[in-house]
Write a structure and sequence with these properties.
Layout lengths: L13 H4 L2 H16 L17 H23 L3 H7 L4 H17 L16 H12 L2 E5 L2 H9 L8 H21 L4 E5 H6 L1 H12 L19 H8 L3 H9 L10 H4 L6 H4 L2 H10 L1 H6 L18 H25 L1 H14 L3 H10 L5 H5 L5 H7 L16 H5 L1
Parallel strand pairs: 1-2
Helix pairs in contact: 2-3, 2-5, 2-18, 3-4, 3-5, 7-8, 8-15, 10-11, 17-18
């Protein structure tokens, strides 16, 4: 969402995106972006998830058609009006949804969660798409000075405290707006509370999300004991995804650390940030941080609030570029494999409009048939199975197509 919506015009106008071939291209590139993720998307058997383009596309088209139909009936509006309400931007959201559903299904899950910090800015789209019955937000809040300190050490996004703090402030405004408009859809969690009472905070999250599913139709066994909140908390750092991610990058190395590490995370900025950087963060995000209960340490007490002039902001932009450059030079020396994975993922987004146009003729839209030869995903096989050749009268009563074949 955050990456592809701003660059949607590279694929054509909103009207052009309604064309099936453009949608195929969009599906392919978003799937490529997921498949080149620095942390591989794996199924419950530790195999790479195979995103078959034709199946994703089919689900996307059905989803958008159904969404437009329901909105037209619900609001009593014309076809033209519904196309304006649910425009081509929703195809990106529908592709995102199809990919997340596939990931959940491949891991035997009935629910998924996206941890992207930027999803809150698409609240209106998400509400239109999922409705209040399905949409939920977990709003994790952390001291902006500690957030900034973390980003200054991590090769992700901006590094300069001004740019990190401004982005943090913008995200809080989105979160606070949802909290004001639809408090029943959002659950607030403070990072500092998680550090002091991990089990208690996990219990509150579980309560907000609702009862966890205890069985599935195709489950091969019975549930004897459901893990309690403490077990879930303790198992999180030992989970399959956390274990793999922490080996791949500095960015994720803290995922497997325990209580001794957590105890050192309170107000780290006091020990590790210099006064000027703290002052920059407090000046850039003063209203948002005080609204959320974080008191300034310097601004208004030992120092005045900084007046961010155009010249000063330009200076920060240039320093930010230098800091990012140094970050990646250091990464090239310390973990070249991590740098390669990041560059490979970023290269998908750098493809220009000319490349997208040429791709119509160059890309193999049916390469998925080759993938299908070695897949054992029953649902994928079902979509390619020619039901016209089957005499369903000869099937056992209540047997499903996939269940019978398996």
């Amino acid at each position: 969402m955050r990456e592809f919506l701003p660059m949607l015009d590279k694929f054509g106008s909103l009207e052009e995106i309604e064309n099936l071939k453009v949608k195929e291209l969009l599906v392919d590139h978003i799937c490529q972006y997921v498949e080149t993720n620095q942390v591989p998307w794996l199924d419950k058997h530790d195999r790479h998830i195979k995103f078959i383009r034709k199946i994703i596309l089919k689900n996307v088209v059905i989803t958008i058609d159904a969404l437009r139909g329901s909105k037209r009936f619900e609001k009593g509006i014309s076809q033209k009006e519904v196309l304006e309400l649910i425009d081509a931007k929703y195809y990106v959201l529908a592709i995102f949804d199809a990919i997340m559903n596939k990931c959940a299904e491949s891991n035997g899950c009935k629910m998924w969660m996206c941890k992207s910090m930027g999803m809150s800015q698409y609240y209106d789209m998400l509400l239109n798409f999922y409705g209040k019955e399905r949409l939920r937000f977990i709003y994790l809040i952390r001291d902006p000075r500690d957030v900034t300190l973390s980003f200054m050490k991590t090769p992700v996004g901006d590094c300069h405290p001004y740019l990190v703090a401004k982005k943090w402030a913008k995200l809080q405004n989105h979160g606070l707006q949802i909290l004001s408009d639809a408090p029943e859809l959002i659950h607030q969690v403070r990072y500092e509370h998680v550090l002091s009472d991990k089990v208690g905070e996990v219990a509150k999250i579980n309560e907000f999300m609702g009862a966890r599913g205890m069985c599935r139709t195709l489950r091969r066994g019975s549930v004897v004991v459901l893990a309690d909140d403490e077990q879930l908390s303790n198992q999180a750092k030992e989970g399959r995804e956390a274990s793999k991610a922490k080996e791949l990058s500095y960015q994720f190395q803290n995922l497997g650390r325990g209580d001794s590490f957590a105890a050192k995370q309170f107000a780290k900025y006091l020990l590790q940030m210099d006064t000027e950087d703290i002052r920059i963060v407090e000046s850039a995000a003063l209203e948002e941080m005080t609204r959320l209960g974080y008191e300034p340490h310097h601004v208004g007490k030992t120092h005045d609030r900084i007046d961010f002039t155009e010249a000063l902001i330009h200076e920060y932009d240039e320093l930010n570029k230098q800091m990012i450059s140094k970050m990646f030079l250091d990464l090239e020396k310390e973990n070249p494999a991590d740098l390669y994975r990041r560059q490979r993922m970023a290269s998908v987004l750098k493809k220009n409009r000319v490349h997208f146009r040429q791709s119509f003729a160059e890309m193999d839209l049916y390469r998925d048939e080759m993938i299908l030869e070695d897949t054992d995903d029953e649902d994928e096989i079902e979509d390619h199975f020619d039901v016209k050749k089957v005499d369903f009268a000869k099937w056992p009563l209540k047997a499903s197509q996939v269940g019978f074949l398996s």
